[in-house]
Amino acid sequence: MARLFWPLLPLLCDLIYGSLTTPDLLQRVLQPNDSVRPPTGSSSALPNNTSDSGQTQKPVAHAAADSENSLGLGISSSSTETLVEFPESLGNQSVCETEHCYELARAMAMAMNTSINPCDDFYEYACGNWTSYNPMPDDQSSWDNFQVVAQKLTKQLREVLERDDPNDLSTARRKARTFYKACLDMDRMDTLGTWPLIKLLQSTLNGWPVLMADWNVAKFDWLSTIRRTKKYGFGLFLEWVGAGDPENPKKNMVHFVEGSLGMSSRKYYFANHSEFVRTAYKGLMRDLIVLLRDDSSHISAENMTLVQKDADDVYEFESFLAEVTRTEEDRRNLSLSLNKMTLEEFHTRCLNSSISLRDLMDYMSSIMPNATLKALVTKDLLINVGNPDYFLKVHQKLAEYSRDPKKQRVVANYIGWRLTMEFSAKMTQKLRDVVEAFSQSVDGSKKEPERWKICANKANSVMNTAVGSLYVKNYFNESSKAKIAGLVKDLREAFSNIIEKADWMDETTRTRAFTKLDSMYEYIGYADYIIDDVARLDKEYDHLDFGPDHVYNCISINKFSVESNMKDLLKKNNRSLDEALSPADVNAFYDPANNIIAFVAGILQFPFYDASRPEYLNYAGIGAIIGHEITHGFDDQGSLFDADGKFFDWWSSESRARYTHKAHGLVSKYNNYTLPEGSVNGYLTLGENIADCGGVKEAFNAYQLYSSRKGVVEPLLPGFEGYTTEQLFFLGVAQGWCGSEREKTTRNLLLTASHSPKMFRVIGPLSSMPQFAESYQCPLGSRMNPELKAAVW
Ligand SMILES: [Zn+2]
């Protein structure tokens, strides 16, 4: 379970935003950036989807039923007319005539909008009709190939989680099934009512003030409360996690980090574009309070005005916390987040106004799960403080508030709110409905996902390796593992050639870059032990037990995750993602702190990889994804970690200056991309844009390596005889990103996401490649062939 990344940043660079979505209703939209639950609670999961099969099959079947001419691009070469003149077909390139190739060709053709000039907008040209054949399900806020595959995968997870297999002796897998089953039992949740939450608020806070007429401020102090809430995952004003030491990746250390916010980004509290998010969030708070007051045994006689005042105060207090939290942009500057000091220094510099050093040490040791860990807590303990200024300001505020009982109430109400927000979606139908309404008003989705989807994804996220093993055993095609390894080899070579030819790098830096590339670890599919070593798999979840009540199971998970994380402090970081990744995920990763590229089982399938189609489409699909992850090792953040994952600038100052200059070019390029919902933030998305651009280029070059090694010219697809192999490669790249998004989701992502919108993940990289312009014969100066081709690699 251990995932020991430097917690200061989203250092695990995933391929698609937020590693898809979190499964919880509430977290679906505004996932708290809570690094306190790195192993399980907040880790990635799959989205919740609807229909039966991989949707990519749908247009194919549909097309087969239609006349082949209905889309103007059937299966004869005469129908491939577009607005550009294609190079003369050499006439000697064969065409793949299998039924599979016909199906592929139909699906590719149907996604296209050939009335668009590919040199103006290649995304629209390649994907303009995709949405007509792949309408977004009502329960989704974003819909693309990744989600289509994830939908299929979720259904498969449901099957294996619902199947009672008496021969399966794994306790971990049995626990996953128990968890799933309890999650489905909504009648039981309704019968239990809101009592579990009320009880939790009672035991941590002596009751949530906003629900009570007789809340006793004299019994409240924030530090004792945080001591109790930390085990549920809420360290809030004194949050800390165990994670890798950036300067010594083999070692783990304590990192004090900014507390999470109710909404995942500070921008939601202030940005002009986010007024609708704030309104929905305030509404959620008010509605949950009202519902809980109705249910509470401490029903107060106070009127709604007081409720509103309490809610407003909580929001205002959280806005203050948001204000002193770093922006996403500042978080990209890694050196800002490296501030090592002793516990005593931390206290003197940042906490002096609010608590004593003794209190700080007591707080930490009291939540440590065993004596060895407790013994770690001394005033000389070396820690890292992600944002010293945050702690200084928050603790000045807490000190000021502690002198005023009315303000104490605000702090208590805030803590109560965060617990309520965490657990409301596991309560009664009424509460779940309020949470769902909030989700929909924020992300624009129109329907709640079916319960089994929520539960299958939640089970996968909390027991990633156990559920992953079920997936791998039942659905993963083993033969793809070796084939993907072959592609990775070509992609590595392609990147190596790029380094070789980078005339802006000096020789010392180049040699170090080679060393880093050579020592990059590969994780492909899954870790063997989840299939071969049941004892190890079971041991991972040894201390986790589930019963019939979903909410208590979720509480157990939070406690388990926090404890596991603390225990990690005693472990050596063994440069492995084995326990961190979900094999049943449709995503890929780079982890700079361990220098590992990872392609989990869920993504090693159609449409990203398909053993029965021409390889140029595989290099365009999974190849570009592999290239993307390799390039992350050399993006503006990844390049600050050396071959062993140590945070260390191994570049000469001259080469670094030239790198930065090139990166600036890319920032300007993406800053100019706009959508009706807003503009792309070129700096916020820089790392991903570098990876996108490098990935496609490497995949293109890797395919050249492949085809010259094989010495064969692969066949074209039926209906695409007028195209060249290169043109089909680029079409394949672009169609990997076909998709659509709700307007509100686009607005939120433009503001906060590290990835560019789908269309610019195509237009950006392809317009920086002369090979693209040449293959589609785009005139110099056209949008897809600008004079200035900004690129880092
Ligand atoms: Zn990425």
TrEMBL record:
Species this chain originates from: Hypsibius exemplaris (Freshwater tardigrade)
UniProt entry keywords in alphabetical sequence: Hydrolase, Metal-binding, Metalloprotease, Protease, Signal, Zinc
Residue stretches making up the Peptidase M13 C-terminal domain: 587-789
Protein name as catalogued: Neprilysin-11
CDD domains: M13
Signal peptide: 1-21
PANTHER family: NEPRILYSIN-LIKE 4, ZINC METALLOPROTEASE FAMILY M13 NEPRILYSIN-RELATED
Needed cofactors: Zn(2+)
Biased composition (Polar residues): 31-58
